[in-house]
Amino acid sequence: xxxxxxxxxxxxxxxxxxxxxxxxxxxxxxxxxxxxxxxxxxxxxxxxxxxxxxxxxxxxxxxxxxxxxxxxxxxxxxxxxxxxxxxxxxxxxxxxxxxxxxxxxxxxxxxxxxxxxxxxxxxxxxxxxxxxxxxxxxxxxxxxxxxxxxxxxxxxxxxxxxxxxxxxxxxxxxxxxxxxxxxxxxxxxxxxxxxxxxxxxxxxxxxxxxxxxxxxxxxxxxxxxxxxxxxxxxxxxxxxxxxxxxxxxxxx
Amino acid sequence: xxxxxxxxxxxxxxxxxxxxxxxxxxxxxxxxxxxxxxxxxxxxxxxxxxxxxxxxxxxxxxxxxxxxxxxxxxxxxxxxxxxxxxxxxxxxxxxxxxxxxxxxxxxxxxxxxxxxxxxxxxxxxxxxxxxxxxxxxxxxxxxxxxxxxxxxxxxxxxxxxxxxxxxxxxxxxxxxxxxxxxxxxxxxxxxxxxxxxxxxxxxxxxxxxxxxxxxxxxxxxxxxxxxxxxxxxxxxxxxxxxxxxxxxxxxx
Amino acid sequence: xxxxxxxxxxxxxxxxxxxxxxxxxxxxxxxxxxxxxxxxxxxxxxxxxxxxxxxxxxxxxxxxxxxxxxxxxxxxxxxxxxxxxxxxxxxxxxxxxxxxxxxxxxxxxxxxxxxxxxxxxxxxxxxxxxxxxxxxxxxxxxxxxxxxxxxxxxxxxxxxxxxxxxxxxxxxxxxxxxxxxxxxxxxxxxxxxxxxxxxxxxxxxxxxxxxxxxxxxxxxxxxxxxxxxxxxxxxxxxxxxxxxxxxxxxxx
Amino acid sequence: xxxxxxxxxxxxxxxxxxxxxxxxxxxxxxxxxxxxxxxxxxxxxxxxxxxxxxxxxxxxxxxxxxxxxxxxxxxxxxxxxxxxxxxxxxxxxxxxxxxxxxxxxxxxxxxxxxxxxxxxxxxxxxxxxxxxxxxxxxxxxxxxxxxxxxxxxxxxxxxxxxxxxxxxxxxxxxxxxxxxxxxxxxxxxxxxxxxxxxxxxxxxxxxxxxxxxxxxxxxxxxxxxxxxxxxxxxxxxxxxxxxxxxxxxxxx
Lengths: 252, 252, 252, 252
Fold this sequence. Notes:
The structure is a homotetramer. Chain A is of the alpha/beta class. Chain A has 6 helices and 11 strands. Chain A has one domain (4-217): Rossmann fold (3-Layer(aba) Sandwich), CATH 3.40.50.10900. The longest helix of chain A has 30 residues, at 218-247. The A-B interface holds A 1, 3, 5, 7, 48, 50-60, 62-70, 94-95 and B 93, 96-97, 99-101, 103-105, 137-142, 145, 155, 157-160, 163-167, 169-170, 172-174, 176-178, 185. β4 (57-60) of chain C pairs antiparallel with β10 of chain D, so a sheet runs across the interface.
C-alpha cells in the first residue's frame, strides 16, 4: 500500500487558488473554521486522502455506519477572485515523517491546480481564558505582514515563542522551501482547554477579508455564545477555587 | 526482506467468498470465535503471513519446538452457499503502519479469490461483567443493517463511541474505500478483563446465521460455563470488596 | 544509505557450515559464549554488518580510538567436520523491524555459503541465582531433540513459557520458514542480574559437542569462579536482607 | 518526498577541505562553536538540508517570519591551507535511522568536494560546574592523537566511558567505515546544565590551531564571562543548598 493514497474526484480549472488548511489541533480552532467555510460556501469535494500516517481507525455514525479516517480537500470557484481550496480532516499525521509526507504530498497535487497562496489555521494556546482573543499571524515572506495587519492580524514580538509545530507550520515551511509558494499561518488565541468556536469565529472574520467573500457567521456566533456560557461558569468556578487556594498559600 | 511475506499453499476457486477476520483483541472475542470456526469446520490452510509488523518472537511448544509468529488464512468451500475464508493469527500489526499494511496486503490477495464481503470480529469492552452480552454491529453500508438486525445484532445509537480501532476497523475501512468491498464488524460485549468465550459464543451464533452453516457450539458453551464459574466468583469477591470500600468512603 | 550495510572480507568455500549466533541479551550468555569461541578457535573475520537498526554510536577505546557499533561474522574451516561461522556483535536490532531485517539479511548472505544449521545462544532468566544452571533447548524440528538431549540439553515442558523474543528466536524462525534451514536455540539458565560467564560456560560445553571441537574452557572457568565469588557474596547479603525483611512481615 | 532534501547553492572547487560539524547537543557546545566560526569567518552557504528526520516545525522570527527547521553547510576557501566546510543546524536527526541517514547523506555529498578530514564537536557532560573545562578527544585513527595532544586536547583513559552517541559519533564512524575518511571528535567539558559558551570557546581555541586560522574570540569570551556571572551565582546557591541538605543528613 502507498503510505498516502489519494482519491481525486474532480479536475477543475482553478484561477490562482488559495489553500486554507484547517486540521485538528489546539482548541480545534483551525478545524472548526475550515469546516465552517466548507459548509457555508457549499464547497465541492476535490479529493480524499487516506494514509498509514493516520490512526488505524474507523469512526461509526450514530446509525452504525463506518467511516475510515481521512483528510479531504474541497474547492469552490469564485469568479473574479482567487478560487478557493480548503483542507480539512480527522487527524494530522501522527508521526514526524507523516507530518512532512502528508504536507508534501498534498501540496504536490495542489500545485497542479496552480496553487498560489497557503493559509494555515491553528490555535494559539494561552493556557487561560481570554476575553477578547486575538488572531496572531506568521508569514513566509515579510511582504505579507502589512496586508494582514491591516485586516486585524497581530504580529506580537516573540510570539509564538516556540515556533509552529505540526501541519500548520510544516505546510508553510514546505510550501515556501520546496514549492516556492508563500503563505501565512493564522492562529486564533484560545485557552486550549476545549474546542473553541469563538476563536474560530475570529479567524473566520480575517479569512472572510482574505477570500473577499462574506461568510455568514450567525451559526458559529451562536455556538460561540453557547460555549461561552458553559465555559464562563466553569472558568468562574475555577478562578474562585484558584483564588481560595492562593489565599491559603498552597504551592502544589 | 519484504515487510510482509506471504506463503500461499493453495489456489482454490471460490464462489463469492466471505472473509471472517478474528485477530487478538479485547477479550480475545474475535480470535476465539474465528479459531473455533476453523477448527469445527475443519478448514484448510490457504496462506500464512509473516511480517516485520509482528513481534520478533517464536513461540515454543510444550515439546520444545519453535513457531515463528504469524497470521493465517483458512478456507472452505460451501457448495450452494458463499464459500468461506477465515483470518486468524497470533498478533495484530503492532504499529499504525503495520495495521494498514497488513490489512491492505491481506485484502489485496484475497480479492483475487473474488472476495465479496468482510466480517470482522472483535470485543466491545464494557469494563464490567455483563449478564447477557449483546453483539453490536457496524457496517460499511447502511443497507446491511436490516439483515443483521434481524439476526439479533444491535446497533445502539452512539456505540461504539470512539469508533473501531485496529484490524477489525481498518480492514472494513480499507475494504470499502480501496477495494469497494462491503462488510460489517461484529462486536461481542465483554468485560475485557479476560479471554471471553461466552461473548465469542454469542458472536458465533450470529456468524452461523450469516454463513448459513450450523456450527456445533457444545465445546465453546462448556468453556463459557467453566469461565463463568471462575469469573463469577472473582466478580462476586470484587463487588464485595468494592462495596466495603465504598462503605468506608475511600476515594483512591 | 542502505538500512543494513555489509562489508564482506573473504569468500571461503565452506563445507556444510553451521552458524552460531551470540548477540547481547539476558546475562549476555550468548555473547560471552560466542566471543569465546571466536577467540579460542582463532576464527577469521568473514564480514561486518553496520546498520541503522543499531544505536547511532561509536565506542571509544581506552586509547581514544572510535569504533562504529556493528555485528560481525567469523568463520573457521574444520576439515572433516562441518565448518563454523559465528555471529557476534555489539547490539541486537533495536526495533522490531530491525530484528527481522538483520536476521533475514544475515541469513540471506550466509546461505550463499551453504549454511546448513543454525544454533542461537541466549540466556534464560530465572530471576534468582541458580546453583547448577541448566541449558534449555528449543528446536525448529522435533527430530533434533534426541541428539541435543543426549548432550545434556533439557527441554522442560512449558519452558520458556513466553517463547523466545529477539535475535535468538527470530533467526530460527526466519531460518526455518523463509530459508528452510533447521536450527536450535541453546539457553543458559542465568539469574539475569549480571553478565554470567558460568552460564556461558555451560552453553560452551554443549557447543563443544555440537561442533565436535574441544574448546579450552580454562579461561572462562576462571572468570566464572571470580564472578561467583563476587556474586556469591552479593547473593548472600541479598538473601540475608530479604530474610530479615520477610521476618518483619514487610510486603513492599 | 525524499526523506532528506538538499538544496545546493554553490559548486566551489575546494582544496583538501576539512568538515567541522557542530549540531545541537550537550551544553550546545558544538553548535555554539561551529556557528561562531561561520559568523566570524563570514563563510558562504553551500547547501541546506531539510528532512523528515527533523521535527515538523517552523521557527518564527521576532518580526513574524517563518523558517522551516534545517541543517546547513557553509564553506570558505583558505588559500594555502585546507579549505573549510562547517555543518550547523537546528536539530540532530530525532531517530536512530535519522542519525545514520543524515550523517551518511551529508558525507556522501561532501565527499564530492574531496572531503579529507572530519572534526565533530560536542559537549562532554560532567554533571557539575568545572573551573577549567578540558577539551577531550577521540579519533578514528590513533595516528591523529599525537598532533591533537600537542594542541592541548586530552585523551583520558576510559573517557568518555559510554562512547559517543549521536551525530558527533556517527559521522566519524560512518566517515571511517563507509567513506574511508578519518576524523576526530572534540568534546568540550561542560556541566551540561545550560548552553555553555566557555566550553565552546575552549573548543574554538583548538579548532583555531587545526584550521591554522586566527578566530577572534573576543565576543565569545564576553558571552562566556556573562554566563559565568549568572551561573556562578546559581552554582553558589545550589552548593549552599546542597551543603545544608547534606548537613541535615537528607537522602532524597
